[in-house]
Amino acid sequence: YISSTGKNEFLFYEDIVQSEEENWALEESLQQLSTAVFAGQKQEVLRIFDDIAEDLHPCSQEFIASSYLLVVSNISFQLHEMKLSAVQVLTMTNEILSCFCGQDVEKMTLAVRNWLERVCQLVEKELEVRSNLIVESVYKYINGHYKENVGLEDVSRQLCRNTSYVSRLIK
C-alpha cells in the first residue's frame, strides 16, 4: 500500500496488532476469508468479513483502517498468485486503496465489503474458465485415445489432477 509518506510499503500482521491474542484472532479470520475468496464462496466471504468488521468495531479508526489494508493486501497478493491479469488486479486494488483516504469507518467497511464482492465475482469467473479448460482437456484426451480402454485414472494422470476432482468436473 502507499503510506502517508507517499512510499510503497508492506503491511504485516505485527505492524497493526498490540497483543498476541489480537494477532492470532485477526490472522485466523484473514486465513478463513482468503480461503473462502479463492473457493469462490461469496456468501461465506461476506459473512466472514462482516464478523471481522463487527470484531473491529470497538477499535480505533487507525487500527480498523490498518486491518482493512491488511485484508486488501492479502487478497491482492493472492489474486496475483492466481495469475490473473496484473492490470486488472492492480486496477481493482488501486480503486479500493483510494477509498481509505479520509473515509470514516462505515464508508471504509462498505467499500471493502463491495470490493470483496467484486473480487469473488472475478474469482468465480476464473474458476469457471479453469474448470472448463480441464473439461475440454478431458474430452480432447478421450477423443484422441478413443480406440484405447481409457479410464478416469488415465485421464487424471495425463492432466496431473486428482481423480475425484476430474470426476466432479465431468459429471
Overview of this protein structure:
By secondary structure, the chain is mostly helical. Helix content is 74%, strand content 0%. It has 8 helices and no strands. It has helices at residues 13-16, 20-37, 42-56, 61-81, 86-98, 105-144, 152-159, 163-170. The chain is elongated.
Say what oligomer this is.
Answer: single chain
Q: Care to count the β-strands?
A: 0
* Rg on CA atoms, Å: 20 Å
Helix content: over 70%
Helix count, per DSSP?
8
Q: For the residues shown, what is the average pLDDT?
A: 80
Low-confidence stretches: none
SSE order: HHHHHHHH
Name the shape in a single word: elongated
Structural class assignment: mainly alpha
Task: Report the sheet-strand fraction.
Answer: under 5%
Distance between the termini: 43 Å
User: What does the largest sheet look like?
Assistant: none
Pick out its properties.
171 residues, mainly alpha, 8 helices, 0% strand, elongated
Would you kindly provide a brief summary of this structure?
The protein has 171 residues and is mostly helical. It is built from 8 helices and no strands.
Draw up the topology in text.
Blueprint: H1 13-16, H2 20-37, H3 42-56, H4 61-81, H5 86-98, H6 105-144, H7 152-159, H8 163-170
